[in-house]
Design goal:
heteropentamer; A mainly alpha (302); B alpha/beta (264); C mainly alpha (292); D alpha/beta (307); B: 264 residues; six-stranded mixed beta sheet; 34% helix; globular; D: 307 residues; alpha/beta; 13 strands; binds adenosine-5'-triphosphate; binds magnesium ion; binds phosphate ion
């Protein structure tokens, strides 16, 4: 019965030839997306630098784009806002994330780990607007009980909340790195009379360091790009200083502010969001490449 | 100074290091060690042989309580080390393990420098003095017969060493905490013949100072280097005696079958 | 050589063990911290929002009067958005994954695509908003329509589904492919009839994760310029619309307590949607749990 | 025919007459889209209108943006919207641009607003401010401003400024009337969203800010409004003082601008008609002050002419 | 009808199905098959034996060009199937593989129902008619001696079957495309003795209709079921002859050593 049918395959061989090209085309969409992002940003940023000098952009210490006539476009205050928030987030997330990772991989039983890890990961899946709301309506008022001078919009509260949001990234990825350290390493150390803590900190952690570093860099990159939390709870005052109690503006929050109203099409302000977006893109790109580099370059040798 | 029950040898004057008494061990439902009685003597090499899965590794890991890393393990019976029951609540595993070193089947150096590998033990035990550490590292590496090969690259990563060198490094790491007993679980099975020979020589050397218990698959090796041999089968000790006796006139048919390669 | 004094070693044992216990407690507390915050967050939102959560809230249009306000357009808008994002991401994501896993030769171009995908995954969502604004809203003149937002979101979550699908395809055992080829099946037949069915659970799980991300994102939509007040339902993909996170953001911005509660109620609805979607993902994973 | 409807003063009679008049049309459900953008100050009125209109005509999709007056005009010039709400009259350059694009438009007044200067609830020192003090406070002069700089005896603490953004008509109005077009303090937190300003001011003891009266009215429990002394003693913005014009110089009219071409569409026409008919009641309900009936009547006549 | 060069048998009247001529195969630099010459006859069972890594699987996979799934493979020489060179550009692999079925070492049913597993082949070859499909499925399952065991659960998942049943299902799946030759790569090595027996019986049955080439590690099996046996060593064919002859009086010392279990 089959032999008869075996002959007719011209359409199917057409498909065979055609499909790889179609799929290649589909696969290229992701490249086109990157290209689209880069071109969009570069193009409009270019227009922006036609109106504002790049030197001013990089060196001026004031960001005041609202006056078309005598605006001031120094990215540093926005960068400082972003860095403040990111730093606070890292200070919260790195120790807690690492401690959670160590607990889960070295101390917790299998059952505990299987129970806790997914719950922890829920934290990473909560929409950021929810965190923004939480920062503004819960964390800020709570912090103001402790620090009365804290302004309603500040760097501290969104920083802490972003930190909480990226805890599971660090915990989960670092835990993967720790778990992949072979047990023989732990046994070797335990057999020398080490306590569990010594095994974890002196043997396992150093052995997994590249995976851990990569997870931290990725999490920090995520913090840099975080938008809604800072837009809701961070304020809109670009400042070049290290004060975390006063209102700030991050690069992302600036883009949101302008997108919400102030962007008259083709004004300098309009183009400025692309210049800021481009700066942001570069920051995160460098971080991502760095994370890939360390996880590849310093891959553990065991 | 007590005559071991299973031991049919004549050396009555030696000190007993480990005394195993009615030891049973289960992995969950799996009864892996059954009624083990075994006395291990000081400054001897005791070999443990037997087919795969007979419980050799399980037994040797019980001696320094590494077996407790497997959560489903239960034991009954007693093992006393130097007269003290190691299962005693008051006996800290860390304390036991500083006296009982262990070398594993696959070399498992830490991903650190050679120096740091050896200095790891002394450091965690509180030795900070750089000079003393240097000295310990040197002595230990010499003790493990690897000093000459690595003395010029102490601060390079241990993973640059060959498998045989790594295994001797692990022995050096073990010597650095100045243990009393050294447990070795098939320490040469991952090594080439020449490295194996070196490790075997080393074991002969070490027994002057330490008591050594070695698990091996290799009958010839057991015959070559051990003073006593215990033959395990299905979680039981079938025969335990002087190595010469075991290999020349085993008293149990199964021992003989195993030694002559009829199974295993 | 007797450089290690075993009695001091044993004396030092105790403090070391205490430190060990102390740190264990510390690590446990750190782990619990995350869970605690999650608990507080959910508790706060539920106690704040539960009062507004009723059928009327789901059926009403937004209103300037808090007691009348509802989320119908946002809810429907979110479903519309999902309707656009799902087919696009599945098609692009699974297609890319098949290409990379089954067809692509291991060369520089392939690894370039791969690196590109992991970088794309790290691009902040707001930058995707700028892309969408420039390309879809302005250049293609789609305006702030469901389609423009859906395309933007699709690109945003594309890396998630590509990576998940790749993993799923990779985990299909080689023997199954061999069996199919052995019977004279062509590559495409093998992919469609053997590989994809076996990879479906992983792909669907990835798809749901991607979709969850898409319906929770706010920033790119703000950049696209979705209108603040919208009291109608979209009828086609070319209509303007709003989504749950935008409506929540809108209410969060209002100082009055009543609107804050509305925001909380909106958040509950959003979280419920996410929980349902993720439960489906878990169900799929369990149902299709690898049989080979 | 529409002119007749303007006679009733009460809203009730208006709708009554509408009913009889539109008996035919009422049943006819309109379809279509209306795009509105612009003033945040006008937004509360528009929001109310859209909501009410939506109940009568659910088939008409009205989207309201709040880009601020400036932003609204930019969108209007861009051609993407039918209405531009404004809290100041259209500027000459905007007019020129509209002309250039060939966009004809008509201005409609909706209500009067009293631009309100507000401080934190816990601010117990500010009793009123003179126009000069306001100017001194808000003018950029390179110094850090403290309350004690404004009036002796006030706390020696830095003032925190919250202002609408440069795209807001409110900013333009304030800038023009108080600052005489000089730059505003750069340290100010600028936001196009009045609600953000409300949140900021209500959370900051040393804050001061300003915006449309409706936003104060909505948040009376969180804010304290500052009476303004323009030489005739301090006047607080209230319904009466705005209506009477006593609250000066910060009283101002609110507008919406419609694209003439759009009015040709039935749904836009009906929407605008509905807006004008109900502006009085709805603007009062959100806190603004209605215009005289004559004004609305005139507006409706103008609308009639555009059809 | 040509006498195979290596084959020292007397059956000259049988048709040659596969003629392998100077076949060489490399995995990258690894020369895995060296100068293979081998003729396979119709309606016979040809067994391929040899120690691990000698190239048995490689050879059998070359016969239906499955080997091409490994990208680094290069070949030289010629294999003709029914007189046509299978390496010919114009010869579609799909066409070849529908004529040459394959059964693998580990049973590899698709994660579909039993019915769908068997119907898979006919379906991809364009048969849509439900009645015909039903018929093919039944015939094939009967042919693979598994019909009685599964006829009541045709629409249940194939993974519910035992290993032996799964393997017979795979054979049925292979029969469903009505092949001419069936290649089997250690089809029983993952099965228990009883299932093995069933498959062996089946092979005896199948050779009436098909030509079968079977790789096996199990000498007894080769002796029991095959007509001819080829002994591979290090990628070379050391000896190829009637099975009786190979097992009773091998002409090569290495064949003898292997058969008597002296290595491998
Ligand atoms: N972690 C474990 N969990 C459960 N069972 C185990 C575990 N480790 C070993 N076993 C079981 O305990 C028994 C003894 O195993 P053990 O590893 O001690 O054997 P062995 O003599 O060391 O074998 P080999 O020579 O292969 O190393 C075996 O049946 C094994 O399956
Ligand atoms: N995919 C591959 N890539 C590279 N080398 C391979 C591959 N498959 C097999 N080889 C090599 O080719 C040689 C022959 O392998 P093959 O699998 O044919 O042996 P075999 O006789 O089937 O062995 P076994 O009895 O273990 O199945 C071996 O040296 C093997 O390492
Ligand atoms: Mg073992
Ligand atoms: Mg093989
Ligand atoms: O939003 P405005 O009313 O200030 O333009």
């Amino acid at each position: 019965m089959i032999q008869a049918k075996k002959q007719k395959r011209s359409t199917s061989s057409m498909i065979e030839k055609f499909v790889p090209y179609l799929l290649l085309f589909v696969a290229v969409v992701s490249v086109l997306t990157t290209l689209g992002i880069v071109l969009t940003l570069v193009f409009e940023t270019f227009t922006f630098f036609g109106r504002v000098s790049i030197v001013e952009f990089l060196t001026s210490q004031k960001w005041y784009p609202f006056s078309e006539a005598q605006g001031s476009y120094g990215i540093l205050p926005l960068v400082s806002g972003t860095l403040k928030v990111t730093l606070i987030a890292a200070i919260v997330a790195v120790p807690i994330g690492l401690a959670s990772a160590i607990f889960l991989s070295e101390y917790a039983s299998d059952k505990t780990r299987r129970f806790i890890k997914p719950i922890l990961e829920v934290l990473a899946g909560i929409p950021t607007i929810v965190y923004g709301f939480f920062a503004l309506t819960f964390v800020t008022p709570m912090l103001r009980e402790i620090i009365p001078s804290l302004e309603i919009f500040n760097a501290l509260s969104p920083g802490i909340v972003i930190g909480i949001m990226i805890i599971p990234m660090i915990a989960s990825l670092s835990e993967d790195a720790l778990v992949s350290v072979p047990n023989s390493m732990r046994e070797g150390a335990l057999a020398l009379g080490s306590t569990k803590l010594e095994v974890s900190l002196k043997v396992v952690l150093p052995a997994a360091i590249s995976g851990i570093m990569a997870s931290i860099v990725l999490a920090v990159s995520r913090a840099i790009g975080e938008t809604m939390i800072v837009a809701v709870a961070g304020g809109s005052t670009p400042n070049l200083n290290w004060d975390v109690t006063s209102s700030i503006q991050t690069m992302t929050a600036y883009i949101v502010q302008i997108s919400q109203g102030d962007a008259g099409y083709q004004t300098t302000i309009y183009y400025s969001i692309y210049a800021v977006g481009f700066t942001l893109f570069l920051f995160t790109l460098v971080m991502n490449l760095f994370a890939q580099y360390i996880s590849r370059r310093f891959r553990e040798e065991y | 100074m007590v005559q071991g029950k299973n031991s049919q040898n004549e050396t009555v004057n030696k000190n007993i290091v480990y005394k195993t008494d009615q030891l049973n061990l289960w992995y969950g439902e799996n009864h892996a060690l059954k009624n083990i009685n075994l006395d291990i003597y000081e400054n001897e090499v005791t070999a443990i042989i037997g087919p795969s899965g007979c419980g050799k590794s399980t037994y040797i890991k019980t001696l320094n309580r590494m077996i407790e890393l497997v959560p489903i393990v239960r034991t009954s019976g007693e093992i006393s080390y130097r007269g003290r029951n190691i299962f005693d609540k008051s006996y800290g595993v860390e304390e036991l393990r500083t006296k009982v070193g262990m070398v594993f089947q696959k070399p498992n150096p830490f991903p650190k420098s050679i120096y740091e590998n050896v200095a790891y033990g002394p450091k965690i035990h509180g030795i900070r003095d750089k000079k003393i550490l240097d000295q310990i590292v040197e002595e230990s590496l010499k003790g493990a017969a690897i000093w000459d090969e690595v003395k010029d690259r102490l601060h390079q990563n241990a993973y640059g060493l060959s498998g045989g060198q790594q295994q001797r490094l692990c022995i050096a790491r073990c010597l650095a905490i100045e243990p009393d007993v050294i447990l070795m679980d098939e320490p040469t099975s991952a090594l080439d013949p020449i490295s194996t020979l070196k490790v075997e020589e080393l074991v002969q050397e070490l027994k002057k100072e330490f008591s050594i218990i070695i698990v091996t698959h290799n009958m010839q090796q057991a015959a070559r280097i051990s003073d006593k041999t215990a033959f395990f089968l299905n979680g039981e000790v079938i025969e335990y005696a002087d190595t010469d006796k075991i290999f020349s006139m085993p008293s149990d048919k199964r021992t003989e079958d195993y030694i002559t390669g009829r199974f295993g | 050589m007797k450089m290690i004094n075993h009695t001091t070693v044993i004396k030092r044992m105790k403090p070391r063990l205490i430190i060990n216990t102390f740190f264990k407690a510390l690590f446990l507390m750190a782990t619990m911290f995350g869970l605690l915050v999650l608990g507080i967050l959910l508790y706060r939102i539920f106690t704040q929002g539960i009062g507004h959560l009723n059928l009327q809230f789901l059926q009403n249009l937004p209103s300037r009067k808090a007691e009348l306000a509802g989320i119908k357009p946002a809810l429907i808008g979110t479903i519309w958005l999902m309707g656009v994002v799902t087919p696009i991401t599945l098609l692009l994501g699974v297609g890319t994954a098949i290409y990379l896993e089954e067809y692509a030769k291991k060369n520089r171009f392939t690894s370039f695509i791969q690196i590109n995908i992991s970088n794309l995954a790290g691009v902040p969502s707001i930058v995707f908003g700028l892309l969408g604004l420039t390309v879809f809203v302005r250049a293609l003149a789609l305006g702030t329509s469901v389609l423009a937002a859906g395309l933007t979101m699709s690109l945003l979550v594309l890396p998630v589904i590509i990576v998940a699908s790749q993993e799923a395809i990779k985990s299909v055992p080689k023997q199954l492919r061999e069996a199919s080829y052995g019977m004279g099946a062509t590559k495409w037949q093998t992919i469609v009839r053997v590989v994809l069915p076996a990879a479906i659970p992983g792909i669907l799980t990835g798809g749901i994760l991607a979709l969850s991300r898409a319906i929770g994102e706010t920033a790119p939509l703000v950049v696209l310029g979705l209108p603040l007040f919208l009291a109608f339902l979209p009828k086609s993909v070319f209509d303007m619309f709003t989504v749950l996170p935008m409506q929540i953001y809108n209410w969060t911005g209002r100082p009055q307590a009543a609107f804050q509660e509305l925001a909380a109620a909106g958040i509950i609805v959003l979280l419920l949607m996410l929980i349902i979607m993720n439960s489906i993902a878990v169900l799929i994973r369990n149902k299709f749990h690898k049989r080979y | 025919a529409c002119g007749a409807s303007g006679n009733g003063t009460s809203n009730g009679s208006q709708t009554d007459e509408n009913k009889t008049e539109q008996a035919g049309e009422e049943n006819k459900q309109l379809q279509g889209e209306i795009n509105i953008d612009g003033s945040t100050t006008v937004y509360p009125i528009m929001e109310a209108v859209v909501e009410e209109f939506g109940m009568a005509q659910p088939g008409v999709k009205v989207a309201v943006g709040t880009s601020g007056t400036g932003g609204g005009f930019k969108a209007f010039i861009g051609g993407s919207t039918d209405f531009a709400n404004a809290s100041r009259p259209v500027k000459d350059e905007e007019k020129a641009q509209l002309e250039e694009k060939g966009i004809k438009f008509t201005e409609f007044k909706l209500a009067s607003d009293g631009l309100s200067v507000v401080v934190n609830k816990d601010n117990d020192w500010v009793d009123y401010l003179t126009v000069d003090e306001l100017q001194k406070m808000w003018l950029e002069d390179g110094t850090v401003k403290k309350w004690s700089d404004i009036r002796p005896g006030w706390p020696d603490e830095e003032i925190k400024f919250y202002s609408p953004s440069t795209d807001n008509g409110t900013f333009d109005y304030f800038d023009e009337v108080i600052l005489e077009k000089q730059p505003l303090v750069e340290k100010a937190t600028l936001s196009a969203a009045p609600n953000v300003l409300v949140q900021g001011i209500s959370g900051d003891k040393n804050a001061i800010g300003y915006f449309g009266f409706a936003y104060y009215a909505e948040n009376k429990d969180k804010l304290k409004v500052v009476p303004i002394d323009n030489g005739n003693g301090p006047v607080e913005p209230t319904h009466e003082s705005i209506e009477s014009g006593d609250y000066s110089p910060l009283s101002r009219p609110l507008f919406t601008y419609v694209k003439d071409e759009s009015v040709k569409k039935e749904e836009v026409y009906e929407f605008l008609k509905y807006t004008l008919e109900n502006a009085a009641e709805l603007s009062e309900s959100v806190g603004y002050v209605k215009l005289s009936d004559e004004d609305y009547k005139k507006d409706l006549e103008t609308l009639q002419g555009l059809k």
